[in-house]
Amino acid sequence: MRAFTQHQGIVAPMDRSNVDTDMIIPKQFLKSIKRTGFGPNLFDELRYLDEGKPDQDSSQRPLNPDFVLNQARYKDASVLLARANFGCGSSREHAPWALEDYGFRVIIAPSFADIFYNNCFKNGLLPIVLEEEQVDRLFREAEATEGYQLTVDLEAQTVTTPSGESFSFEVDNFRRHCLLNGLDDIGVTLEDAEQIRAYEDARRKTAPWLFNSVNQ
Amino acid sequence: MAGKTLYDKLWDDHLVKQRDDGSALIYIDRQLLHEVTSPQAFEGLRLAGRKPWRIDANLATPDHNVPTTDRDKGIDGIVDPVSRTQVETLDKNCDEFGILEFKIKDQRQGIVHVIGPEQGATLPGMSIVCGDSHTSTHGAFGCLAHGIGTSEVEHVLATQCLVQKKMKNMLVKVNGKLGRGVTGKDVVLAIIGKIGTAGGTGYAIEFGGEAIRGLSMEGRMTICNMAIEAGARVGMVAVDDTTIEYVKGRPFSPIGEQWDTAVAYWRTLHSDDNAVFDKVVELDGAAIKPQVSWGTSPEMVADVDGQVPDPAKEEDPIRREGIVRALKYMGLQPNQAITDIQLDRVFIGSCTNSRIEDLREAAAVVKGRKVAASLKQAMVVPGSGLVKAQAEQEGLDKIFIEAGLEWRDPGCSMCLAMNADKLGQGEHCASTSNRNFEGRQGFGGRTHLVSPAMAAAAAVTGHFVDVRELLN
């Protein structure tokens, strides 16, 4: 996984709450057996005027001029500013894959859905929770100033505005550690292989039915 | 000292290691796999040269992409080549790693969240994961069941553990007895309407109270299934006689002495009387009416005798904007009566409502009636091959077919429209599924979430109607 330490980038404000994972990447694109290539279909139904199909050349499709990411000023955005409960709905990791593939590295919102939040960390994408009032302010500033950028420092756990004002954010220590170092968390867990085996041995004695083979 | 909640007990029983940083390793007893969220996980294992930790803890089946017609053709019956590749990839991966899979032509194939309980592969007290958010369904058995992403699917395959931080405890207590014609689906929609789609975020929800205790396992599964629609990854119901009765005699259930030991343990799987919850929400079950969703989020629900809301009356600007947007997408007017919503299609199925009891409830309503001429389609998609066989044995298929509903083969079908079953643009559908998000059932499609009985009532009238008026 790509490590994340600091990032500075243009902010795209997406002003709607409860953005669900069906909206982030519609189901017809979940048929891929790969982890990459979802970027052109990020927010497909909001971004294009026609119905998206897998394996089509999206560069030829009619764009929805009202959608935020289609505005020239947000073309190179890498920080997505969002509203409450972002990423609700399904567990599809295709949602963070699509955001990452499009070029986003950071998503800032007042709250995220649990599974989506967790999936982001596995893909070098940093979801940041800020207070509702802080998010409101960033929305106003990003909409008012073309080329508005934010600087995010995971080590220091801060988001800094162009005027130099900083907001601090909370992040779980383990996730922060893995993201800062680009660690494969399977490798980290396997360092405890002995403890997993010891748990299994003990559990097998008290609850043997849990270890009956389903391969009957 | 405060007692433990059911979630506390399940957590403690699966804790392998508590790390200093607050995260923990939780042992996973069962992983269910399907074709959509597993290919990248298997590929990851191969790239890293890793093997599954415990092969026989896994059970797989294709469900999201499978067609609901022409199933005797097997994989060749999947017209879309991309869908076909995904199902073939699951077969190949399971064959390569030796994982038990109910393949497309196996009668035991079905929606993962239907076949786990049906087979006894879901047992009380287990920790269960699946790369699907509706894994919370299995919590109906007093299980710790999480929906996970693909990276976590790979993590569980490789380590049999999940890295988790303990959630907070919430009790949703539904008091009193449910009225006639009011089902688990109406209860859970009413709960989501009350606490909102983020109301359960960060919590494990235990559903309790007299109304929940009075439900069958099917009804409890429907409720836990939609815990994620309230934002909670985990939903649970305590083990009781209903649970144990359901589990007994299933293919993978323990037998003999193991059964007795297991039952003794399962009987402890309830919250202690003096357990403390971080949050408690109470509802009066007797007051719950049949529910219909009118908007594009499962919290946008109304009583069947209610109305579509008027955004002008909403004070919060973000919520107001949400209502305006939803009404525009849904093609509805403020203050429109729910019973005035005209329908194009009816879908009875999905991991929320495709079990035998759901089909019985729907059949009881359509029996002796006909699908309204104004409808383009009304379809019934059983949750598994075994549910289908049982329904046919009970003659339910004939009731549906005589009434003019289509009787299909098992799969996720029009719940998320990854196969050929989908809504056309602008079409309204009475659906027993779990999500009414924009485009969920097809590009521009308009979903209304309801119970199987309410969907059946809508099928025979062409619009929403209080099913209680049709019940004898």
UniProtKB/TrEMBL annotation, chain A:
Source domain of life: Bacteria
Catalytic activity: (2R,3S)-3-isopropylmalate = (2S)-2-isopropylmalate
GO MF annotation terms: 3-isopropylmalate dehydratase activity
EC number: 4.2.1.33
Known function: Catalyzes the isomerization between 2-isopropylmalate and 3-isopropylmalate, via the formation of 2-isopropylmaleate.
NCBIfam families per the UniProt record, alphabetical: leuD (TIGR00171), PRK01641.1 (NF002458)
Known partners and oligomeric status: Heterodimer of LeuC and LeuD.
Protein name in the entry: 3-isopropylmalate dehydratase small subunit
Lineage of the species this protein comes from: Bacteria, Pseudomonadati, Pseudomonadota, Gammaproteobacteria, Pseudomonadales
From TrEMBL, chain B:
EC number from the UniProt entry: 4.2.1.33
Pfam families the UniProt entry points to: Aconitase
Keywords, ordered alphabetically: 4Fe-4S, Amino-acid biosynthesis, Branched-chain amino acid biosynthesis, Iron, Iron-sulfur, Leucine biosynthesis, Lyase, Metal-binding
Bound cofactor: record note: Binds 1 [4Fe-4S] cluster per subunit.
InterPro entries registered for this protein in UniProt: 3-IsopropMal_deHydase_lsu, Acnase/IPM_dHydase_lsu_aba_1/3, Acoase/IPM_deHydtase_lsu_aba, Aconitase_4Fe-4S_BS, Aconitase_4Fe-4S_dom, IPM_dehydratase_rel_enz, IPMI_cat
One GO biological process term: L-leucine biosynthetic process
GO molecular function, one term: 3-isopropylmalate dehydratase activity
Aconitase/3-isopropylmalate dehydratase large subunit alpha/beta/alpha domain ranges (all copies): 8-462
Cofactor: [4Fe-4S] cluster
Signal peptide: none
Pathway: Amino-acid biosynthesis; L-leucine biosynthesis; L-leucine from 3-methyl-2-oxobutanoate: step 2/4
Subunit structure of this chain's protein: Heterodimer of LeuC and LeuD.
Family (UniProt): Belongs to the aconitase/IPM isomerase family. LeuC type 1 subfamily.
Described purpose of this protein according to its UniProt entry: Catalyzes the isomerization between 2-isopropylmalate and 3-isopropylmalate, via the formation of 2-isopropylmaleate.
Protein name stated in the entry: 3-isopropylmalate dehydratase large subunit
Organism: Marinobacter profundi
